[in-house]
Amino acid sequence: MPSKYPCGNCDIGVRFSGIKCTGPCNKWYHAGCQNIKEKSLKKWTSQETENWQCITCRADQHLHLSQKIPDPISLNSSGTIEDLTNSLIENKYLENSKSEEDRLE
């Protein structure tokens, strides 16, 4: 008979030292299967356990959020490597020119 709460990692029933993911998967996990030490888990507050998400859900959430954040380079250029390279070369040239002017003064 299959377990009522199979671990989302190893598929073995979670009976002790388990924690439920509050992320999209909503699965139970053995603490050890999520790299959580049993002693550490026992010290968690109810708020920590009520808001805990498994490694997979956290990674998916991070990936989803990173897709929404605009790339700062694309905000400042037309997006080509050539434009970026030219901009960097121009900045370096201006820095060198300023240094040369300072030396001549």
Automatic annotation (TrEMBL):
* A GO molecular function held by the record: zinc ion binding
Q: Which InterPro entries match?
A: Zinc_finger_PHD-type_CS, Znf_FYVE_PHD, Znf_RING/FYVE/PHD
| Signal sequence interval, chain numbering | none
Q: Which domain of life is it from?
A: Eukaryota
Record keywords = Metal-binding, Zinc, Zinc-finger
Under PROSITE patterns, the record lists: ZF_PHD_1 (PS01359)
Protein name per UniProt: PHD-type domain-containing protein
